[in-house]
Amino acid sequence: MFDLTGKCALITGASGGIGGAIAKALHGAGATVALSGTRVEPLEALAAELGDRTHVLPCNLSDPAAVDALPKQALEAMGAVDILVNNAGITRDQIFMRMSDDEWQSVIDVNLTATMRLCRGVMRPMMKARWGRIVNISSIVGATGNPGQVNYAASKAGMVGLTKSIAYEVASRGITANAVAPGFIATAMTDKLNDDQKAAINTKIPAARMGTPEEIAAAVLYLASPEAGYVTGTTLHVNGGMAML
Amino acid sequence: MSDIADRVKKIVVEHLGVEEDKVTENASFIDDLGADSLDTVELVMAFEEEFGIEIPDDAAETIQTFGDAVKFITEAS
């Protein structure tokens, strides 16, 4: 089950906790992986750890020209892009009354617009191949909302609408598009919280703990696999029961 | 019929799964040959590959019929 031998995957945000785990899971299932992110050092370190079948493609997702170039670079490096995982994301939290245009726009640009550009960039090779898997990493807050995250929640909800619409358009071509919506996951982002904050979060999670990056990666691996060919336009919530959607 | 027209017809027949005699000069891909909007994009991609040309999006939108396609490709190649 879930054998990705011969498949080529482009993963953004691969220098982060969740992105790194996704890259490892897809690579472990046999895929060739292109690791993208802004920080070259952790990407190189991950590539060294994984060994063969890896490519490092740094990209600043707030630069539209660089984003448009990335699928082409991935195609050149790997010869195909069968799987696209839009995992990269940023937060710029602020209470809504104080939220600046810049705080709004930068989050929308990276989380939503770059996702759209990358999906558009891989469409042609996937259409030709009559096979493709797009997995967009949304968030629980895209469905539930979250104070201080008007920009982030809007971008993550936007990803879900984008994913569903793409899924409609290309389902007949063997291409699926799905979202994974993580709840609270233990990463560098949540490490910044103090113990009281963590304990408060855990009381809201029926599973009474944060999730792991590997638990998100497993969901991505499933949606990227040949076995998930009949699953499209869905959002797979991986949140320990925090929101049962 | 020109060589280009033959090659275009072959692509259309194969891609849309229609009878060869349906692919006439004025046959519209969408109205007469059952293509959907995605098919027309794929036809353009196939033409680009077959003839080694690039068909920009605004030009692609003007290619509605078999005759349009042959005319555009003849001029472009």
Structure description:
- The complex is a heterodimer of chains A (245) and B (77).
- By secondary structure, chain A is α/β, with parallel strands linked by helices.
- Chain A has one domain: Rossmann fold (3-Layer(aba) Sandwich), CATH 3.40.50.720.
- In chain A, 48% of the residues lie in helices and 15% in strands.
- Chain A has 9 helices and 7 strands, in the order βαβαβαβαβααβαααβ.
- Chain A has helices at residues 17-28, 40-50, 64-78, 101-129, 140-144, 150-170, 188-191, 195-203, 213-224, and strands at 8-11, 32-37, 54-58, 83-86, 132-137, 175-182, 235-238.
- In chain A, strands 3-2-1-4-5-6-7 form a 7-stranded parallel sheet, with helices on both faces.
- In chain A, α1 (17-28) links the parallel β1 (8-11) and β2 (32-37).
- Chain B is globular.
- Chain B has 4 helices and no strands.
- Chain B has helices at residues 3-16, 37-51, 57-60, 66-76.
- In chain B, α1 packs antiparallel against α2 (37-51).
- Chain B is mainly α.
- Chain B has a single domain (1-76), classed as Orthogonal Bundle (Non-ribosomal Peptide Synthetase Peptidyl Carrier Protein, Chain A), CATH 1.10.1200.10.
- At the A-B interface, α4 of A face α2 of B.
- Chain A: Keywords: Fatty acid biosynthesis, Fatty acid metabolism, Lipid biosynthesis, Lipid metabolism, NADP, Oxidoreductase.
- Chain A: Its EC number is 1.1.1.100.
- Chain A: Belongs to the short-chain dehydrogenases/reductases (SDR) family.
Mean pLDDT of chain A: 96
Helix proportion range of chain A: 40-55%
Give unreliable regions of chain B as ranges: none
The CATH architecture of chain B: Orthogonal Bundle
Classify the beta-strand content of chain A into a percent band: 15-25%
Average pLDDT for all residues of chain B:
94
Number of strands of chain A: 7
Q: What is the fold's blueprint, element by element?
A:
The complex is a heterodimer of chains A (245) and B (77).
Chain A: E1 8-11, H1 17-28, E2 32-37, H2 40-50, E3 54-58, H3 64-78, E4 83-86, H4 101-129, E5 132-137, H5 140-144, H6 150-170, E6 175-182, H7 188-191, H8 195-203, H9 213-224, E7 235-238
Parallel strand pairs in A: 1-2, 1-4, 2-3, 4-5, 5-6, 6-7
Chain B: H1 3-16, H2 37-51, H3 57-60, H4 66-76
Helix pairs in contact in B: 1-2, 1-4
